């Protein structure tokens, strides 16, 4: 049995309020449109998470909300706010369900994605993992506890910009 991970970086955030704490920054107009586009794309592909593990920052929560997907369970935690790839792997290893969506921040998210893939996708922006970037990985395992580095098989990698170009 396989497990599927959807790994999304928060959409573009607003810098309109000088002095606003980083944790409290919302999405800007482009970010809102991007989050909605990613949600439509995932829904069209039938990718609906059993579990969402999301940073508690405003911009990640708003990204998830604007994706307009249903999930079996949602967990918002500061344990995914600006964390390392190793910390993200520990969170994933404790997950339940067949499909998990993780929503977080760079640089940890980009490092996590690069460390999970057996072979990176042929995409010019994979390494820097820009805002809204979404990676879909399959793991040949029946338990998230068994997921380790370089086990993920890339199914999809997309940027919101590619979805909004139409």
UniProtKB/TrEMBL annotation:
Coiled coil: none
InterPro entries membership: His_Pase_superF_clade-1 (IPR013078), His_PPase_superfam (IPR029033)
UniProt binding sites for substrate: 59
Pfam family, one: His_Phos_1
Superkingdom of origin organism: Bacteria
Name the record gives this protein: Phosphohistidine phosphatase
Region feature (Disordered): 1-31
